[in-house]
Amino acid sequence: MKAWEVQGRGIESLKLVERPKPEEIADNQILVNIKAASLNYRDLIMLNGGYGHLGGIPPFVPISDAAGIVVSIGKNVTKFKMGDEVISSFFRNWRTGSIKKETAASALGGKVDGVMQEFMVFDEDELVNAPQNWSLLESSTLPCAAVTAWRALITEGNLSDKSIVLTQGLGGVSIFSIQIAKSFGAKVISTTSSEERIAVAKEIGSDEAINYNRNPEWYKDVLSLSGYSGVDIVVEVGGAQTLDHSIRCSKQGAIIAIIGVLSGGVAELSIGRAISKSSRMIGITCGTTEELSNVSNQLARSGFKPIIDSKYTLNELPNALAYMREGKHVGKIVIEF
Questions:
Q1: What is the pLDDT of residues 259-279, one digit of tens each?
Q2: Please, are residues 179 and 205 in contact by the beta-carbon 8 Å criterion?
Q3: What is the 3-state secondary structure (H, E, C) of 110-131?
């Protein structure tokens, strides 16, 4: 079978190789023919040797998110049958509940080989059913970005139709956050980098959008748009240059879900402000297989579908990663096997 390997560091070290197709599976395992994958910025970091001891050691198979078709099942498998379309979970050993010390090392596309291979073996509890009215390309976008958004908004944020949510930018997590929040009837305020992207944010579902380049003190606009009550949940992907603003425009006791570090990984902020606002800042590291099933079902019921920016073939993986590195995309970049 074909597989991509990271044989050094960077996109240039990728090599398309032949690996043996898995032939034997345990009684509780499933063999999946991978048909589609999607990219996350984490994948570039992994290729460049990031994440320290949690990173992959070359040669390893990259990329974490995929969907495919069940082609073989163990005799004790009860949740799936031959021909089912399935989505793989980001972590191999985080099925439900709270994160554990060993969880991070089980993420696909790092210490554990990822999905850029034509066939993979999974335990039954590492997969969920793909939505029936979605393509496998659409389904492949969920495991990292959508689950991260779900954990921020639902598991930690207790989202309701009374909530006001702040999203930042139009990356994968932010777009899914807009869609999830709107599917529950919440109000969404988004920040983004241009007037063109404001129009995109509103098309996706944002109620209000702010150009942070034109309004450097955008927290004031967020406060105004929230009726000066502040927002209930912040999907904080900006990092160093946005965290203090996020605290300023949040309401008393708001959840600030810290997900990204796009503007830097070390922030200066007023500790007194965080204390006086009873800010609840929590780091989000993707989520569980159960949450993958929940977000898949919710989006399918609500009629929302993933936003796909561009599609590449299996052989074009390096080109897809180079395009993602440019940062010009809106929505997910997907790979069709």
A1: 987 666 777 777 888 888 999
A2: yes
A3: CCECCCCECEEEEEHHHEEECC
CA dihedral 214, 176, 167, 286 (to 10 degrees): -130
In this structure, what token pair is assigned to residue 94?
A: 């985080």
Enumerate the β-bridge partners of residue 119: 33
- The whole-model pTM stands at 0.96
pLDDT (tens digit, 9 = 90+) per residue, 5-31?
Answer: 999 999 999 999 999 999 999 999 999
What count of other Cβ atoms lies within 10 Å of the Cβ of residue 334?
25
> CA 249 to CA 223: how far, in whole Å?
5
Give CA–CA dist 129/132, Å, rounded: 8
